[in-house]
Write a structure and sequence with these properties.
Layout (H helix, E strand, L loop, with lengths): L10 E5 H11 L4 E4 L6 H14 L2 E4 L3 H13 L4 E6 H6 L1 H10 L5 E7 L12 H8 L3 E2 L4 H18 L3 E6 H5 L1 E5 L23 H21 L5 E3 L5 E6 L1 H12 L6 E4 L1 E3 L3 H10 L3 E5 L5 H13 L4 E3 L12 H11 L28 H15 L4 E2 L26 H12 L4 E7 H17 L4 E7 L28 H7 L4 E5 L4 H18 L3 E6 L3 H10 L7 E3 L9 H6 L4 E4 L2 E4 L9 H5 L5 E3 L5
Parallel strand pairs: 2-3, 2-4, 4-5, 5-7, 6-7, 10-11, 10-13, 13-14, 15-16, 16-17, 17-19, 18-19
Antiparallel strand pairs: 1-8, 6-12, 9-11, 20-23, 21-22
The structure holds thiamine diphosphate.
Thiamine diphosphate binds next to helix 4 and helix 16.
């Protein structure tokens, strides 16, 4: 079902992210802006889908900073606004975010940030709660989807009551579990009316900032004293208690049940600042020892230590001495720690050995992916030009160029970082030629400033834009270069080549990566050009995402004609498998063969086969 369907009282199964979206709809969100990123994406998608139906504004922004600013602007007009992002997205938005901590807001402003413990699909495991602390912005953490929905509504109310932005922090498990949610009424979107001019708050000049800093501290202390919704005490036996938040509370519940323990528990939703009176009460319920069960950093633990000091709690506070700061927790890990604390025996459950002999397979680009063809081009051009190449990479499907057979991603830090790092390398390592890669969505998101720097400071680098005309990695979302928005409506198209030329790049070429020969020729030209001119060159490798195109074809009822290997001509040279690495090509009896079920008929293998042994079914190569 869609998150905007169903009536109050219905019990429905929702994904954590959908429950969060539903909470925003029940709160009357009027504006939504976000940038996709696992594990947050489904919340943004569900809200955008609901926006046309319910009459509020929603957009996929160019990056998270812009998303937060769009949401802030709407809040300054009295609207209820939400910005969505993954944890590292908050780094991009951090400059604005830190200042919002000072200025506060007008209409409710909720920032959904989804963390990724275990870094399932991220470059780090950073804990957003520390950002809340850093900016004096309260953090609410739900433990299951139904609570997530309710907590989002509460977050809007808290935001307006205290005139502060509020973070709702989710994690991968919570965002991606599906469980029962009880629907409430949908509210009419709170759209606000006009800009609430307040020069004392929205203009962060030094004199204002110093005052606002003090006010921010007072606000957060007030919230600590007054708020404790969705946090509660469970009484129990003994003098040792447990504090938990988020999904970790679920693990604690299970562990206590399995260990047959009945001890005091403090379940927290407000994890920054801590609800002071509830903590004080808990100190008296667990006078001997408190064990904090939380994922990632010791955010609750450190705050508890500080409150313990202030309030004269003399018991012991434990947490990260028992439980890991790295990766996700689970019931077994929590059970083991609690068994140790309470002196119980614990036998580690045996893991199933499924005895399935699955060959290890590195992650790979899809059959027909233009990125693969372009990596092949980069490899061939580098070889032909006999250069010592350095290949700074970036974040997106094309990060898979790290794996064999290409090995063409030498660095990968965060979105937009590849080119910037390449600029430094080009100055520090004069013998090498820097060929940086970046995706189209990433180019718009965070790539442009480094390109301007390359022009302004004369960096001899080649930037290859791996343009599959979509934000593919996170689920084919549109971006400013696609010419349409998430609803499929036409939008003005921003052209990467226009931007490159406009910032002063003199060598800008567009290639079709399937046209391997021409692409090698153009890339070789670019390499020569940057060496001769001591300036950057941009080569845009443009090919629509093969997976997307394949699905479109199927939808249109078109057939895909696969290629096949003519066994008599194939010499078993392995260029197609070992240098190109398409998953649709394999070897049998020292001959290549094509798995027709997954071949999308791109024909690049036929082009690179040195013996013309690959042919199109029903025709020639
Ligand atoms: C700051 C930040 N926001 C969002 C993400 C999630 N994310 C990873 S790659 C990517 C974009 C990929 O799109 P593109 O650059 O076009 O490359 P493609 O996957 O299409 O090859 C996004 C949004 C992230 N890693 N970091």
């Amino acid at each position: 079902m869609k998150v905007f369907e169903g009536k109050a009282g219905d019990r429905v199964l929702l994904l954590g992210n959908e429950a969060i979206a539903r909470g925003a709809l029940e709160a009357g969100v009027g504006y939504v802006a976000g940038y996709p990123g696992t594990p947050s994406t489904e919340a943004l998608e569900a809200l955008i889908e609901a926006s046309s139906k319910l009459g509020f504004y929603a957009e996929i922004s160019t990056n998270e900073k812009v998303a937060l600013e769009v949401a802030l602007g709407a809040s300054l007009c009295g609207g209820r606004a939400m910005a969505t992002m993954k944890h590292v997205g908050l780094n991009v938005a951090a400059d604005t975010f830190m200042s919002i901590g000072y200025s506060g807001v007008e209409g409710g402003l909720v920032i959904l940030v989804a963390d990724d413990p275990y870094a399932h699909s991220s470059q780090n495991e950073q804990d957003t709660r520390l950002y809340g602390m850093h900016a004096y912005i309260p953090v609410l953490e739900p433990w299951e989807p139904n609570e997530a929905k309710e907590l989002v509504k509460h977050a809007f109310e808290t935001s307006e009551k205290y005139k502060t932005a509020v973070i709702v922090r989710s994690t991968t498990r919570l965002s991606h579990i599906r469980s029962e949610v009880i629907l409430g009424e949908l509210a009419s979107p709170v759209l606000g009316d006009e800009f609430k001019r307040d020069l004392s708050r929205w203009v962060l000049l030094p004199a204002n900032s110093r005052r606002l800093h003090r006010e921010a501290l007072e606000r957060i202390n007030k919230i600590s004293r007054e708020e404790n919704a969705f946090s509660w005490l469970q009484e129990g036996r003994g003098e040792v208690g447990i504090v938990a938040s988020g999904i970790a509370y679920g693990y604690v519940r299970e562990a206590l049940k399995d260990l047959n323990l009945d001890v005091p528990v403090l379940k927290l939703s407000l994890t920054y600042p801590l609800p002071r009176s509830l903590v004080e009460e808990f100190f008296s319920l667990a006078p001997k020892e408190i064990v904090v069960v939380e994922e990632l950093d010791p955010v609750i633990e450190l705050q508890l230590r500080s409150l313990a000091d202030e309030l004269g709690y003399s018991g012991r506070i434990r947490g990260k001495d028992l439980l890991p700061s790295v990766g996700e927790l689970n019931t077994t890990v929590v059970k083991k720690a609690l068994a140790e604390v309470f002196g119980l025996s614990f036998v580690e459950p045996e893991l199933f050995d499924l005895e399935v002999n699955v060959p290890p397979r590195p992650p790979t680009l899809c059959p027909g992916c233009g990125h693969r063809a372009m990596f092949y081009v980069i490899k061939m051009a580098s070889k032909r030009m006999r250069i010592k190449g350095v290949y700074p990479g970036d974040i997106g499907c094309y990060t898979l160029g790290f794996f064999p057979p290409f090995r063409l991603v030498d660095t990968s830090y965060c979105m937009g970082s590849g080119l910037g790092i390449g600029l430094g390398i080009s100055k520090a390592s004069l013998d090498e030629v820097v060929i940086a890669t970046i995706g189209d969505s990433t180019f718009f998101h965070a790539g442009i400033p480094a390109l301007i720097d390359a022009v302004y400071n004369s960096h001899p680098v080649v930037l290859v834009v791996m343009d599959n005309s979509l934000t593919a990695m996170t689920g084919h979302q549109p971006h400013p270069g696609t010419g349409f928005d998430f609803r499929g409506e036409q939008r003005p198209k921003v052209h990467i080549e226009d931007i490159a030329r406009a910032v002063g790049v003199k060598f800008v070429r567009i290639v079709d990566p399937y046209d391997v020969k021409r692409a090698i020729h153009v890339l070789s030209e670019a390499i020569n050009w940057v060496r001769e001119n001591n300036a950057p060159a941009v080569v845009i490798a443009r090919k629509l995402c093969a997976l997307y195109e394949y699905r479109q074809k199927l939808r249109r009822g078109e057939k895909v004609t696969p290629y096949y290997v003519d066994e008599a001509t194939c010499t078993g040279c392995r260029v197609c498998t070992d240098m190109f690495g398409c998953p649709a090509i394999s070897m049998k009896d020292n001959k290549a063969f094509i798995i027709s079920d997954i071949c999308v008929g791109c024909g690049v293998c036929a082009e690179i086969c040195p013996f013309d042994a690959i042919k199109k079914e029903g025709g020639s190569s």
